[in-house]
Specification:
By secondary structure, this protein is of the alpha+beta class. The protein is built from three helices and five strands, in the order E-E-H-E-E-E-H-H. It has a five-stranded antiparallel β-sheet with strand order 2-1-5-4-3, sandwiched between helices.
Length: 143
């Protein structure tokens, strides 16, 4: 099992944080363009799921799978989106969703929201946050 990368987007689509670990193939575009493409894809898929769902689709889009990777999404009530790309060996979606929720509550809230030097609307540059995210992801069973 492998974790490829992590994106954190605010509700406007700005990428606040990006990290990669085992990503073997680099994107053929600028990183800023990749962020826009990823957020646009999330927005479109979420809109599609909401429109075709026979029930309330508030939390129905949690992940999708391709032939090469799995994308997992956790969205907070304030509109933050935590996106984790993993390999296909990660089989339990609910566990990854819980891990992303824990990353939000134990790392993001503690080291960004409660940090008076961090603005929650600007890209995260806190070294402490970056180190905590890295150690959290590396400690996961799916890493």
């Amino acid at each position: 099992m492998t974790v490829y990368n992590l994106y954190i987007f605010n509700r406007e689509g700005t990428c606040l944080y990006y990290a990669e670990w085992n990503r073997h193939r680099k994107a053929s575009m600028a990183q800023d363009e990749e962020f826009k493409l990823m957020y646009g894809m999330l927005y479109s898929v979420k809109s599609f799921v909401t429109r075709i769902s026979p029930r309330d689709a508030k939390d129905q889009f949690l992940s999708y799978t391709t032939s090469k990777y799995k994308l997992h999404l956790f969205e907070t009530p304030s509109g933050l989106k935590f996106v984790l790309n993993t390999d296909l060996g990660v089989s339990t979606i609910s566990n990854v969703h819980e891990m992303l929720q824990e990353l939000y509550s134990k790392v993001y809230v503690e080291y960004v929201v409660r940090n008076p030097f961090c603005s929650i609307e600007e890209p995260i540059t806190s070294k402490l946050f970056i180190n905590k995210v890295d150690s959290y992801i590396r400690s996961l069973a799916i890493f």
